[in-house]
Design brief:
The chain contains 13 helices and 7 strands. It is mostly helical.
Length: about 280
């Protein structure tokens, strides 16, 4: 028998506008984040967005072969790779799934066309957001909330209906993408990559404002925020880099999720009060 499970309530102070209170005793943004983690309703397992999917070695191997074959190799793996990410994703305690049925090879053909366009435009296809609109949005149409008892029927229903998910197609903006690329280049060349934690904090704090999780016929979307700062991520990122150097890269292949999984604790629920049958 299905039971309705409501999403965890949002801490009151996080729903107020940050740093706009005239009350000097009112906690500021940094204190609000601490209050959230101390709240009885908070559970780190409620969110899992980072450190998921297939191993880094598999993704890197497919990426290399894809570049050598103009995206042909990747096109045969792309749906399963995306499904692997989605199936490990947890949003507000709810698991997701993805339909990978592709009898007419639409996903395969789109992947090849997308890679060719992006290569011949030297990445402008991605930086302009066109890749997200015309390519990544096709994956979002296949995403649905997982129902353990009747997952197959729900997959068919969601695949044929209108999708209210914006996961892969979420685009933070041209300015954010260009700034991230610029600072990452400077960090790699001049700072040995030490700026990476701050770059990630900046990028994902903007990206998460574009993510949407919902269902067909629902009027309210579930939205989340990423509240980490560079200093919060630095030690874990540094440990990961040290382990990679000591293991000659094997750490990334076997336990690469260790570095990014830490960032899940900085995901908080911003909006959403849906009752979803599970």
């Amino acid at each position: 028998m299905n039971q309705n499970k409501s999403l965890p309530p949002i801490p009151t102070k996080l729903t107020q506008q940050d740093n706009e209170s005239t009350n000097p005793n009112e906690p500021q943004q940094d204190e609000m984040v601490d209050i959230y983690y101390q709240d009885d309703n908070y559970n780190p397992s409620q969110f899992k967005y980072f450190g998921i999917g297939p191993s880094c070695c598999l993704e890197f191997f497919v990426w290399i072969l894809s570049k050598l074959t103009f995206g042909i190799v990747e096109s045969f793996f792309i749906l399963r790779i995306k499904q692997s990410h989605v199936r490990e994703m947890v949003i507000a305690g709810r698991k997701l799934d993805m339909n990978i049925e592709d009898p007419y090879l639409k996903g395969t053909i789109l992947c090849i066309i997308n890679n060719i366009i992006n290569d011949f435009t030297f990445g402008l296809w991605y930086f302009s957001g066109m890749m997200h609109i015309f390519y990544y949005s096709e994956f979002d149409k296949r995403i649905f909330w997982r129902e353990e008892d009747n997952g197959k029927n729900q997959a068919q229903q969601q695949f044929k209906g209108k999708s209210n998910f914006k996961v892969f197609s979420a685009f933070p903006g041209i300015d954010v993408e260009l700034k991230t690329f610029l600072w990452r280049t400077i960090s790699t060349i001049f700072c040995l990559g030490l700026m990476e934690p701050w770059i990630k904090a900046y990028y994902y704090s903007n990206l998460f404002t574009k993510l949407q999780f919902g269902m067909t016929n629902e009027t309210q979307m579930i939205t989340v925020r990423f509240v980490a700062k560079g200093k919060d991520l630095f030690l874990r990122w540094l440990k990961g880099r040290i382990y990679m150097i000591l293991s000659c890269g094997l750490f990334c292949c076997c336990l690469g999720g260790f570095i990014d999984d830490f960032m899940n604790k900085f995901i908080i629920l911003e909006n959403g009060g849906l009752d979803i049958e599970m």
